């Protein structure tokens, strides 16, 4: 007698993943990342959101919170909602043109208001990056990534040197999430920072990916020492003092008086 096929297979449906597969997929994200997604979804549902939701509903949610939440926070909410749909096998509204246009409008509107306050800081950062890019290729890529990621994530020197390749989660066309394992104020759990992609030529996400590609770093510390031959010197991370020296060198090359601001920022 022929065996009867599983019901899912008979209907032409994909079988449900096993408990073991589910365990590993859950382990793919750091606990802090999962916690931040849960918080995002709680906020979304408290505002009347549901899974599934339409592109119009998501766009309305973003628009209604555009003046009270940071752009990076809204972008993080989109990713959480996107993942919530994919996790249950539903099409995500996050990539819909309406949602993308809504976020573009929010960035432009909010950016105009913020640019008046941050213009000098942004110009100074670009000046530093331009100076860094005049170095040997590998060192230029590392220092540009160090500067842009440091300021985009508002990281201290100690946090920058603690970043591991395994702590970075890439969201194509959206940005990256960096999990800081331990800080001075959060000794046990650390925290997670989302850095969105930027359209400018000095995008921090693009700069980090360029550095990782050129250096060939796929695991372990992200920012490492480079020798005089413009090669990655070792597998250990830079020290906080090394970061300070890198920035001092770049500032000197840029002929900029940024050291007081860098020191104030913890860099």
UniProtKB/TrEMBL annotation:
The lineage of its organism: Bacteria, Pseudomonadati, Pseudomonadota, Betaproteobacteria, Burkholderiales. PROSITE patterns: TYR_RECOMBINASE (PS51898). Keywords: DNA recombination, DNA-binding. Signal peptide: none annotated. This is Integrase. PANTHER family: DNA ADENINE METHYLTRANSFERASE (PTHR34605:SF4), PHAGE_INTEGRASE DOMAIN-CONTAINING PROTEIN (PTHR34605). It comes from Pelomonas cellulosilytica. It comes from the Bacteria. InterPro entries: DNA_brk_join_enz, Integrase-like_cat_sf, Integrase_catalytic, Integrase_recombinase_N, Phage_Integrase-like_Recomb. Residues 115-267 form the Tyr recombinase domain.
């Amino acid at each position: 007698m022929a065996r009867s096929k599983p019901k899912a297979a008979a209907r032409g449906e994909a079988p449900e993943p096993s408990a073991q597969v589910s365990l590993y997929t859950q382990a793919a994200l750091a606990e802090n990342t999962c916690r931040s997604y849960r918080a995002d979804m709680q906020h979304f549902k408290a505002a009347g959101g549901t899974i599934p939701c339409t592109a119009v509903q998501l766009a309305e949610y973003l628009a209604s919170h555009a003046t009270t939440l940071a752009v990076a926070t809204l972008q993080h909410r989109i990713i959480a909602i996107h993942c919530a749909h994919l996790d249950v096998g539903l099409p995500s509204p996050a990539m819909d043109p309406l949602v993308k246009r809504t976020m573009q409008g929010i960035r432009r509107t909010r950016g105009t208001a913020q640019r008046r306050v941050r213009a000098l800081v942004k110009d100074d950062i670009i000046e530093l990056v331009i100076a860094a890019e005049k170095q040997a290729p590998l060192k230029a890529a590392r220092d540009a990534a160090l500067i842009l990621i440091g300021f985009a994530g508002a990281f201290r020197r100690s946090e920058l040197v603690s970043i591991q390749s395994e702590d970075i989660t890439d969201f194509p066309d959206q940005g990256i999430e960096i999990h800081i394992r331990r800080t001075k104020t959060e000794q046990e759990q650390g925290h997670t920072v989302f850095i969105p992609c930027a359209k400018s030529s000095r995008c921090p996400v693009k700069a980090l990916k360029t550095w990782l590609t050129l250096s060939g770093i796929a695991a372990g510390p992200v920012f490492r020492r480079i020798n005089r031959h413009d090669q990655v010197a070792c597998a250990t991370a830079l020290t906080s003092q090394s970061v300070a020296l890198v920035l001092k060198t770049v500032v000197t090359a840029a002929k900029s008086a940024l050291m007081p601001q860098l020191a104030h920022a913890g860099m």
